[in-house]
């Protein structure tokens, strides 16, 4: 792969740090670092911005890395999908083991909680890997994920993307509150049905 070395070479020739380059093409410094270390590849929009900034054609910049980039994007997207579905399923199984162990199988509260939490934790680790892959590719919103999966340019300048990037802590808090509310509702109905 030559793209990472090409980006680094052009960046250093222009005296830009990774932060400077990231600001000019609207990505994070970690994204630029991932590109330069051949961990990930830029999307089409970023490639175009890089070619304009470095005053080279896209062909000169990528030199045969196109197929490798497509394959890497497809592989990362497949990983995200499998890990997301698998992680969600494992989390649900962990919750079911806890509830079932305590109510149906008479394992007792402590063994049910230990087994449920262990399985639940495995699911959360899988979902954390998905978030890490999304962060590597600088994908935040669902719209960006869909564009990434198709290899299309990612519009990071729309209102939702800007809001999600501007307030990541608020987004995390809101997601946690929604998950807690869903858990509370499911717990209440579970208690009403089985309690």
Structure description:
- This protein folds into 2 domains: 3-64, 434 Repressor (Amino-terminal Domain) (Orthogonal Bundle); 67-194, no CATH class.
- 78% of the residues lie in helices and 0% in strands.
- The chain contains 10 helices and no strands.
- The longest helix is centred in the middle third of the chain and has 38 residues, at 66-103.
- It has 195 residues and is mainly alpha-helical.
- Helix 2 crosses helix 3 (29-36) and helix 6 packs antiparallel against helix 7.
- The mean pLDDT is 87.
Keywords:
single chain; 195 residues; mainly alpha; transmembrane; transmembrane helix; elongated; DNA binding; membrane; 434 Repressor (Amino-terminal Domain)
Helix and strand pattern = HHHHHHHHHH
Report how far apart the termini are.
59 Å
Overall strand count: 0
Helix content: over 70%
- Strand fraction: under 5%
Q: What is the overall number of helices?
A: 10
Q: What would the principal axes of the Cα set say about the shape?
A: elongated
Q: How large, in whole angstroms, is the Cα Rg?
A: 22 Å
Structural class: mainly alpha
Whole-number tally of structural domains:
2
